[in-house]
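User: For my dataset I need records formatted as: sequence, then structure tokens, nothing else. Please produce one.
Assistant:
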Amino acid sequence: MDPEQTAAALRQISRGLAALADAISPPSGPAALSDEDRYRAIMNDWGRRGLTRPEAGELFRRHGFSPQAAGGWARGGWMEVRDDGLRHLTERSHQWLAEQEAPDEQHDWQRR
């Protein structure tokens, strides 16, 4: 076997072992969180500031989303592009986040 073929075979084995290690290791980072936890995390990180398109894309990536997910957020009314060209979370997003972070209300029957 020539050295080029040997090197190619070793690279292929290495990729296979890396894929196997990824498959059996517990998830970490954004992948370890539920979708709802990731939504809360990105919204908390975003806050009320406006982001440029590249900044928003990076924020989505950092939280385990595709940058293209911003389009779905815009269509769903969770994010908007304002006249200044910056991307902002909508009031709907801020309200949802506040509801998620509020302590659960107890009903009268639960206090007994």
